[in-house]
Design goal:
Elements lengths: L1 H25 L19 E4 L5 E6 L3 E4 L10 E5 L4 E9 L4 H13 L5 E11 L4 E10 L3 E8 L4 E9 L5 H21 L1 E2 L1
Antiparallel strand pairs: 1-2, 2-10, 3-4, 4-5, 5-9, 6-7, 7-8, 8-9
Length: 196
């Protein structure tokens, strides 16, 4: 009798094991999605840039002003470098000579070159009659090389173009908090720019 009970117990456990192992194979497991590193941002503080340039503005203390050193560099071109975030705001300046429409069109073409990868490009008008600041901010959404471009002018003598770039493979999800952070710095730069 004991042998029969022991045999029944083995059969019961064996059958249970087979049933549960078969149902476990049918379950589909998805791996945990990759996460992004947490980025700690510094406190917003600004300092004045007023070198021997035809314009001045305030920029973040965690940025470094450096002269642009490209092949087509002009005298008043510069970068605001953010080495900790592998980002730069490229700034180019042109003295107008009845050619405002030419520079606006060039700037628009540069912003819309990102159309291939962009999900959307939104334009925001800038207008401050008191300071004689007029322009457009291009908010470029998606996995693009540049996410923010802007142009500013007094419509008579000065034209300034800026673009935010990161030295990394574009990924809108991982870069979103960084882009939002630097958008506030660009807004502050625009709000404090003055022509000389």
């Amino acid at each position: 009798m004991k042998v029969l009970n022991l045999r029944s117990v083995f059969w019961f456990f064996g059958l249970t094991l087979v049933l549960f192992s078969g149902s476990a194979c049918k379950r589909k497991y998805t791996p945990k999605p990759s996460g992004y590193f947490r980025i700690d941002f510094p406190k917003k503080e600004y300092r004045a840039f007023a070198g021997n340039f035809p314009y001045s503005f305030e920029y973040p203390v965690y940025g470094k002003i450096e002269k642009y050193k490209g092949e087509i560099a002009e005298p008043y071109w510069m970068n605001i470098d953010f080495p900790e975030y592998k980002g730069k705001i490229y700034i180019s300046y042109f003295r107008l000579n009845h050619d405002l429409s030419k520079y606006f069109e060039e700037s628009r073409n540069l912003a819309y070159k990102h159309t291939i990868k962009a999900d959307a490009i939104n334009e925001e008008l800038v207008q401050d009659k008191k300071r004689k600041i007029y322009g457009i901010i291009y908010h470029i959404k998606g996995n693009t090389a540049s996410s923010i471009n802007f142009v500013l002018t007094d419509s008579m003598h000065n034209f300034l173009r800026g673009a935010l770039y990161f030295d990394t493979h574009p990924n809108k999800d991982s870069l979103a908090p960084v882009i939002d952070f630097f958008q506030k710095d660009i807004d502050h730069l625009i709000a404090t720019i003055k022509w000389k």
